[in-house]
Amino acid sequence: MSPTAVPVTTEPRDEAFPAFDRLDWDDLALQLDGNGFAMTPPVLSPDQCRQMIDVFDDDAAFRSTVDMARLSFGEGRYRYFADPLPPLVQQLRTRLYPPMARIANRWASVLGEDPWPDTHAELVEACAAAGQHKPTPLVLRYGPTGYNCLHQDVYGDLTFPLQVLFMLNTPDVDFTGGESVFVEQRPRQQSRPMVARPALGQAVIFPVRNRPKQGARGYHRVQMRHGVSAVHTGDRHVLGVIFHNAR
Ligand SMILES: [Fe+2]
Question: Any coiled-coil ranges, and where (predicted)?
């Protein structure tokens, strides 16, 4: 290897995500409570986004690939990373988990559920004890007409309640259409649709399955499903970080 060549697997230094230290977690928690999802400022650099798009074609990086049309999930492909995760993905998982766990623990306390561990390493241990060993972070690629049906990313009994997607392309430049769609199913009420249009490097934090909502008589759970509307032109790539592992 020449002295200037840098492999994509190079361990990123801690300062690889300078925007993370500036995230306002109180504001993100307020967005989650009010809208059901939260948008961060751009947190991945254009180079990091490019790196995650390029890895999509590296078969050795993945443990499994899903052709969504074959399973009637939609149209497009997604690939689950194999262990060991690329350093960038591993760092995202471990660095984002603690502030997410603080929100998840507030939710657990108002819903009367068991608390979540403080670190991602402890969550991975708890997943292993529940028979959930396979990593769940993934990259998704949608071409023209690609879409993703409304769903929830549950992979076993242990389901950490929040997940994150990172937009890897520039909307309206690299692709058109392809909005992130959320539907909140409220008990005994009609469902609420919401749309997010994250920019390059921006993250969207959203519930995996449900979240607490305050009503007149305390908190209740509202169900949330997410999907992607049809891409009209170009290719749309997203990195998905789910914190629990799969059975
Ligand atoms: Fe999903």
Answer: none
How would DSSP label each residue in 102-115? HHHHHHHHHHTPPP
Return all residues near 44 (Cβ < 8 A) that are at least 6 apart. Answer: 17, 52, 166, 168, 201, 203, 239
Task: Measure 165 CA to ligand 1 centroid, in angstroms.
Answer: 9
The amino acid occupying position 89 is V
Q: Are 92 and 241 in contact (CB under 8 A)?
A: yes
DSSP secondary structure letters along 68-80 = TTTTTSEESEEEE
Whole-model pTM: value is 0.93
Q: What is the whole-number distance in angstroms between the Cα of residue 208 and the centre of ligand 1?
A: 8
Please list the residues that pair with 75 across neighbouring strands.
147
CATH fold of 19-242, please?
A: Jelly Rolls (2.60.120)
Going by C-beta distance under 8 Å and a sequence separation of 6 or more, which residues neighbour residue 36? 182, 184, 192, 194, 206, 207, 211, 222, 224
Per-residue pLDDT of the chain (247 residues; tens, 9 = 90+): 344 444 444 444 554 788 888 899 999 999 999 999 999 999 999 999 999 999 999 999 999 999 999 999 999 999 999 999 999 999 999 999 999 999 999 999 999 999 999 999 999 999 999 999 999 999 999 999 999 999 999 999 999 999 999 999 999 999 999 999 999 998 888 999 999 999 999 999 999 999 999 988 899 999 999 999 999 999 999 999 999 999 9
CA of 233 from ligand 1 middle (Å) equals 21
